[in-house]
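Researcher: We're teaching a course module on how sequence relates to structure. For the next exercise, students receive a sequence and then see the predicted structure as tokens, so they can try to spot secondary structure elements on their own. Here is the exercise chain.
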Amino acid sequence: MNYQLVVGLEVHAELSTGSKVFCGCPTRFGGEPNSQTCPVCLGLPGVLPVLNKKVVEYAIRAALAMNCEISRHSRFDRKNYYYPDLPKNYQISQNYLPFAYNGHLNISIKGAVKRIDIDNIHLEEDAGKNLHGEDTGLAEDSLVDFNRAGVPLIEIVTRPDMHSLEEVEKFMTNLRDVLLYLGICDCRMEEGSLRFEANISMRPEGESRLGNRVEMKNLNSFKMVLKALEYEMGRQENLLREGKTVQPETMLWDEAKGMTSAMRGKEEAPDYRYFPEPDLVPLVIDPEWLKEIKESLPELPQAREMRLMKEYGIPEYDSAVLTANRPLADFYEETVRLFPNGKMVSNWVMVELLGRLKERNLKIEDSPLRPSHLAEMLTLIKDGLISGKIAKDVFTEMFTSGKGARIVVEEKGWAQISDESQMKEIVEEVIRENPKSVEDFQGGKKKAITFLVGQVMKETRGKANPQLVNKLLREKLQIKSKM
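Model: And here is the predicted structure for the students to work with:
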């Protein structure tokens, strides 16, 4: 019997607002422990939360981009549980009436579009962070940093629509790209601003009923999500093949051991005793404000990918790479505007530019080479003023110095030799010095001309116009053949 994987995700995305969701404390990552707190986010007696309007705007932008319906009226609830990093002993969330629901995000698998449904998106506040052992400098003690307490989150809850690791990875990638395009989350998983929980079950192929669900907690990277799911998929399938039952429980991923371990059974799960948050009025969204936000949304990655393919004639692979990052797509389009050859630009951006950025661990926004520089260099190639080989040296110098292409070529003396009379002398000298290659060419070995071209390029230190060299060599060799 074959089994089908069934996965649903719960995604926590921290919103990149300057202040927290219910108070004015900053949300900067990496501050001194407990330096970004106040009585409100510490849950001290007598304080009242005040909802940050920018948080609601960012949340709405995410919901609209994911094709959700927006509730005109929603409300906040208290999720009650005790944990050291939860200062109030409850978390303000939205359980009963989330602000967005019934959305979807499309993914492309092997050329086919698949829709992943989103059950709801709700707003909540983040908890603090527990520090244990080595993180504290005190081997046996644990400490709590409340800087993160009150940082605004949206939780995106999908339906169990994913049936392969490829689909899960594609959904996570598309979701991250959307959040980055919207500018509402920096998605720095190493800082905890994008986190995943996965619900996984297995069922016989063709079966519509869901199997017992296992929840995977605290997955902080795409790689970790996929490794945990792969292991858990194998574990559950082995149990089912042995006629055993998969226990519904919450699991943790042990990165060191490469396996999952039980955290608690579902019957042991805490009763959160949700009830309406009495200190916050219902959230009512003005239709005019909603319209303004909708009209301000940028072109999203999938739409941009399709447009770039159609408008600039580049392959799907190129377009997918270029549109995964909004600043990169902007760089590409600005360069094409200045030098209208979509494929030539994509080749240089994807190979040379991305390669240099990766070597130096730089973002595209930090690149010393600008679209105008690249467009100018490509124009020099097109006009025959530099060769493709020299262009790579020009590119390197531009990236290092931040100078324009023409300045670099002039300063380095890298201009291509395109003067025909000058080139004729060099070609004739190479022919005289290589009679064997001339004889081979005349004897039908057409590849012999490649060696002669190389000798000319060597003689000119790569500055010769290769098209002109080929033309002159063929003319001279054909004359010799007739003599």
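Model: If you want an answer key for the exercise: The radius of gyration is 30 Å. The mean pLDDT is 90.
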